[in-house]
Write a structure and sequence with these properties.
The complex is a heterodimer of chains A (about 190) and B (about 200). Chain A is built from 7 helices and no strands. The model of chain A has no long low-confidence stretch (mean pLDDT about 90). Helices cover about 80% and strands about 0% of the residues of chain A. Chain A is globular. The longest helix of chain B has about 50 residues. Chain B starts with 8 loop residues before the first helix and ends with a helix. The interface between A and B is large, with 108 and 99 residues.
Chain lengths: ~190, ~200
């Protein structure tokens, strides 16, 4: 039963994430954190960090990671298969249509309508991760405000906007600098 | 299209597998990077595809749901070696992340409780949030350029629906895709009427 759930959850993620990369993040959050309690928000954020820092698409990395954590190697296989199966079918179908009619007007129209939604969903997932970084797992309150987390976020955002470095470097930098500062503060646990 | 006549089909599958495997194993930074590497390998180096054809394939890969890297590899294989090639390309693309993440996942469980690892990951949370914020800002700009105020209003509406009202992600995607299809139909229809 668990295998079926893993398969269908990641099938939906593979089926409905348009635009690649970050577009899959809100769908993964909905399935894995909100829908099934397979990961906590904190583990989910770790997962996105790991997925960004290792080669391979976020959706595929996430399916392997979650499958592995929930049900070992068979789970990882089932989840990854579920994630790529919709792509295989739809890509082959679209390619066939395209080479037959050489016209993607409707597909491009649908995608143009989707683009604002995809950005909004990425933003929404980003806000949950930011809330976690700044307020921790509990309820967002003034008492739980974490100056270090907020400061790191602001500094990283300024660096990203101004110097346009590789995002991996920014995350690694936040890990090293933030890790050292959190340790000086007495650890995070 | 198929200029490499010296190689037997079996060799070509092997080349396809090794090419997708190495490209997938050493590509950080997601789908758009991998599309250009696939072009370099299969169009410029192996001459299995025309460069212009690769651009069309990239457009289809980005238009389809799922990971752009997987879609692009499937398309290159579909175009060059047909259905069996697709299977080979999928394996080549999937194996590196699958192995790496499986190992990371095993270590993660063991390392997560280590205080230093926990502190580093806590620091990285801020970094990931910043990366997502940066991506959002850039994408919002291109939405504004592409679809104007209407696009930005849809963006804000979809954001509030998802974040404030917890509307299911799939509904938001369905509604916006339907809107895109509807407006395309209207546009094409009006153009046809004008021509008549």
């Amino acid at each position: 039963m668990l295998y079926m759930q893993l398969f269908f959850s990641f099938f939906q993620i593979g089926m409905f994430s348009f635009g690649g990369g970050m577009a899959a993040v809100p769908l993964i959050q909905q399935q894995v954190v909100n829908g099934h309690d397979w990961l906590t928000m904190s583990e989910f954020t770790d997962l996105i960090t790991i997925a960004e820092m290792t080669p391979g698409p976020i959706a595929v990395n996430s399916s392997t990671f979650v499958g592995m954590r929930i049900a070992g190697v068979p789970g990882a296989l089932v989840a990854t298969l579920g994630c790529i199966l919709p792509s295989c079918v739809i890509v082959a179908l679209l390619a066939w249509l395209y080479f037959k009619y050489q016209n993607l007007a409707y597909i491009q129209g649908a995608l143009a309508g989707l683009r604002p939604a995809v950005v909004a969903l990425i933003a929404s997932a980003g806000v949950s991760i930011l809330t976690l970084a700044v307020f921790g797992d509990g309820v967002a309150s003034a008492a739980a405000f974490n100056w270090l987390g907020a400061g790191l976020f602001a500094a990283a955002l300024v660096v990203l906007c101004r110097y346009k470095p590789d995002p991996i470097l920014v995350m690694a930098g936040c890990g090293v600098l933030g890790g050292a500062l959190y340790m000086l503060q007495g650890g995070v646990v | 299209m198929q200029t490499e006549t010296t190689k037997t089909p079996k060799n070509r599958y092997w080349t396809l597998f090794l090419s997708t495997l190495t490209i997938s194993a050493f590509t950080f930074g997601g789908g758009y990077v991998i599309v250009s590497l696939l072009k370099k390998k299969f169009a410029d180096e192996l001459h299995w595809l025309e460069p212009e054809e690769m651009l069309d394939l990239a457009a289809i890969a980005q238009s389809s749901p799922g990971a752009v890297a997987v879609n692009a590899a499937i398309l290159v294989a579909y175009r060059t070696l047909g259905l069996p090639g697709m299977g080979v390309a999928i394996l080549g693309t999937i194996i590196p992340p699958f192995v790496i993440i499986s190992l990371v996942s095993l270590c993660y469980t063991a390392f997560r409780t280590n205080p230093i690892v926990a502190a580093v990951l806590k620091g990285m949370q801020s970094g990931v949030a910043a990366v997502i914020a940066d991506v959002t800002v850039n994408l919002t700009r291109s939405v504004r350029k592409e679809s104007g105020t209407v696009g930005v209003l849809i963006l804000i509406g979809a954001f509030l629906a998802s974040w404030l009202f917890s509307v299911n992600v799939l509904w938001i995607i369905f509604i916006c895709a339907a809107y895109g299809l509807g407006s395309t139909w209207l546009r094409l229809h009006r153009r046809r009427e004008r021509m008549l």
